[in-house]
Amino acid sequence: MPSPKASYGRRAKKHTRRQIRLGRDVTRLFEERFKKPPYDWQINVSEAFVLSLDVVVIAGTGAGKTMPFMMPLLLHPEKYSLVISPLKVLQQDQAQRFEKMGLKAATVNGDTYTRDLQKVRKMCLRLVFMY
């Protein structure tokens, strides 16, 4: 499988102490949760999210794209994510996985629009998966 590619909307500056500490924190948290080290690109994308950089990741199924938008939420309880997902089944699977990790998540699509949208309006969710 080819290596995933990530591009950043704004040019990243040289690593600051904060970024280095953030990379270590993401690595430590990932290893604690998943018992294996993250890929460098996963750490870079996680850092970009925390630093409010725009990010596009192109990677195949099973490459680990979910981790970069999940790890900042575990590091920073005040943050939240909106994920646009093309498949309702994938939305439901990811929302259930995040709920098991202690991150409140829901899917918002044609099947769940009114019920889960009320939760979004109240801002009691940390992750929203939309179709």
UniProtKB/TrEMBL annotation:
GO molecular function, one term: nucleic acid binding
Protein name: DEAD/DEAH-box helicase domain-containing protein
Record-linked Pfam families: DEAD
InterPro entries assigned: DEAD/DEAH_box_helicase_dom, P-loop_NTPase
DEAD/DEAH-box helicase domain: residues covered: 45-127
Top-level taxon in the UniProt lineage: Eukaryota
